[in-house]
Design brief:
With about 200 residues, the protein is an alpha/beta fold. It is about 40% helix and about 15% strand. It is globular, with a radius of gyration of 15 Å. Bound molecules: uracil. The site of uracil has 13 residues, from helix 4.
């Protein structure tokens, strides 16, 4: 289990949270990971983006969304004037994942892994206190909204996580395989943008 309960993670500041994630051995993914992948971006960001889990490139580099899905994500954010690079909080997003460690061969996160890793995501959200959350893909949605409905049923409307507006959209890795849904994802990003202005 966790080196401390979820209640203790909820009290950690940024440095303590980073180090708790780096040293985490709460589930078996710690045995196969090369790096843990913490969130990156502005700690006061207006936008928080939540993905699924590190893939091969992310596991190698210890950074979220640096592979092909990340390139698509960066392009979509850029079209809205948003970036992960240093910028004021209105423009620099914070990007985090539901899982901090790569599942072997990019298999789906297991329920036990999601449950163990959840306090780290919840704490990052509580520290950033974004004005909008963009939840990409079914595992981010499952963790934040406790819903197992398909993305197609949840996107296009405003949900709430702890009072913060949350918009659901397709995961960029899905969009790479199903480019026909890019127009819907763009609508979702515009909906999210309309909530922070
Ligand atoms: N897919 C994700 O969900 N997160 C990453 O960091 C990379 C790919």
């Amino acid at each position: 289990g966790l080196p401390f309960g979820g209640g203790e993670v909820a009290a950690l500041d940024w440095p303590a949270l980073r180090s708790a994630v780096e040293n985490c051995r709460a589930c078996a993914l710690c045995n196969s990971r090369r790096h843990t992948v913490f969130g990156v971006g502005n700690e006061r960001a207006h936008w928080m983006i939540v993905g699924e889990a590190p893939g091969e490139q992310e596991d190698l580099r210890g950074e979220p969304f640096v592979g092909p899905a990340g390139q698509l994500l960066d392009a979509m954010l850029a079209a809205l004037g948003l970036t992960r690079e240093a910028a004021p909080a209105e423009r620099q997003v914070f990007i985090a994942n539901t899982l901090k460690c790569r599942p072997p061969r990019n298999r789906n996160p297991a329920p036990e892994e999601l449950a163990q890793c959840e306090p780290y995501l919840q704490r990052q959200l509580a520290l950033v206190q974004p004005r909008v959350i963009l939840a990409m893909g079914r595992f981010a949605v499952q963790s934040l909204l406790r819903s197992t409905l398909p993305i197609g049923k949840l996107r296009g409307q405003v949900h709430r996580y702890q009072g913060i507006p949350l918009v659901v959209t397709y995961h960029p890795a899905y969009l790479l395989r199903n480019p026909v849904d890019k127009a819907r994802a763009w609508d979702d990003l515009c909906l999210a943008a309309s909530l922070v202005e």
